[in-house]
Amino acid sequence: RALFAERGTLVKLASSSRSAGPAIEITLDETPLIESLWRVSRNFLNISLFIAAVVTCVLWAALWSMVLRPVRRLTSNIIAFGESPQDASRVIAPTGRGNEIGRAEAALALMQRSLAHELAQRKRLAELGMAVTRINHDLRNILSAAQLISDRLATIPDPLAQRLAPRLVATLDRLIAALPDAAVL
């Protein structure tokens, strides 16, 4: 009540005596009390605001270092790994933290390693398939040329060529028949 009183208000303090002695009565100006109350209130408000600002800064720094920075590290690693998943150097190195972010880093590293390994194996298998296809193509070309020569050889009137031509044709036919099985391997 005194904090919001008007300046210049007078306060009357009285003491009633229970004994037969004299009673005391004092009249005071409330203005210095009002000014002191306002000064204490402003100081309390300023100190409270300062403490709130410091606590906010400390909480923000803790949140930044404990949550936001590790999550950004995870996100940037996922993006970098997505750009070149077969590159094993882009696999995240877990920090060893025991909380959820540490477990997420470990799981992500395991997943990235296995994905990079799978992609490397698929690349090797694709290269092997391409090599087998090229060899198959080259063998078919060679066998086609040999079959043409053996067909030509079968029409030559030489008795030795007449005896060797059917065996050569049979051998080439078996080789051609076996060739698709070799391409599957």
What do these coordinates show?
A two-stranded antiparallel sheet has the order 1-2. Helices cover 72% and strands 6% of the residues. The chain has helices spanning 31-83, 100-154, 159-184, and strands at 10-15, 24-29. The protein is built from three helices and two strands. The protein has 185 residues and is mainly α.
Q: Mind telling me the C-alpha Rg?
A: 48 Å
Distance between the termini: 98 Å
The amount of beta strand, in percent, is 5-15%
Give the overall average pLDDT: 84
Number of helices: 3
Order of helices and strands: EEHHH
Percentage of residues assigned to helices = over 70%
Structural class: mainly alpha
Largest sheet: 2 strands, antiparallel
Form type: rod-shaped
Strand order in space, largest sheet: 1-2
| Strands, total number | 2
Unreliable spans: none
Concise description?
72% of the residues lie in helices and 6% in strands.
Write the layout of secondary structure elements.
Elements: E1 10-15, E2 24-29, H1 31-83, H2 100-154, H3 159-184
Antiparallel strand pairs: 1-2
Which descriptors would you attach to this protein?
single chain; 185 residues; mainly alpha; two-stranded antiparallel ribbon; 6% strand
